[in-house]
Amino acid sequence: MTSLWLRRAYDAPGQSDGQRILVDRLWPRGVSKDALKLEEWAKEVAPSDALRDWFGHDAARWDEFTQRYTKELDANPEAVEALRDRLAKGRVTLVYAAKDTAHNNAIALKAYLEKRQASGTK
Question: Is the pTM of this model over 0.85?
């Protein structure tokens, strides 16, 4: 897999970010469209509102969140494939707004994509 990176929406874009894809369902508060410098806003790969609300960025729910999110991604192969197509074209940076840099949907999505790539699964 081509390089897959993560960056918070509140951090300045990097010159080496490649294609910047916002992977949150909600737009980051207080950040302009111009400041994010996005290629795409991929709401369809973000966790559902129900899952996001249930998780509430509670690190104690992380393992269960990743399992539930994986099921949502598995049920949405078109959106995942569109993201994989972008990866085939070069570096991609998944942009997210969460304060917790260790427990957020972008980290779970990155792990999901890397696992599928390693196993040859679509």
Answer: yes
CA angle 103, 45, 27 (to 5 degrees): 75
Question: How many residues in total does the chain contain?
Answer: 122
Q: Which of these, 26, 28, 22, lies nearest to 42 by C-alpha position?
A: 22
Average pLDDT, consecutive stretches of 10 residues, N- to C-terminus, the chain (122 residues): 86 95 97 95 97 96 98 96 92 97 97 84 63
DSSP symbol at 21: E
> What's the rounded Cα separation, in Å, for the pair 21 and 92?
7
Q: Residue 122 is encoded by which pair of tokens? A: 């679509």
Q: Where are the beta strands (DSSP E) in the chain?
A: 4-8, 19-22, 40-41, 92-96
Rounded CA-CA distance 61/6 in Å is 21
Cα distance between residue 75 and residue 87, in whole Å: 20
Question: Tokens at residue 95, please?
Answer: 């942009």
Strands 4-8, 40-41: parallel, antiparallel or unpaired by DSSP? unpaired
Who's near 12: CB < 8 A, 6+ residues apart? none
Which amino acid appears at position 80 of this protein? Answer: V
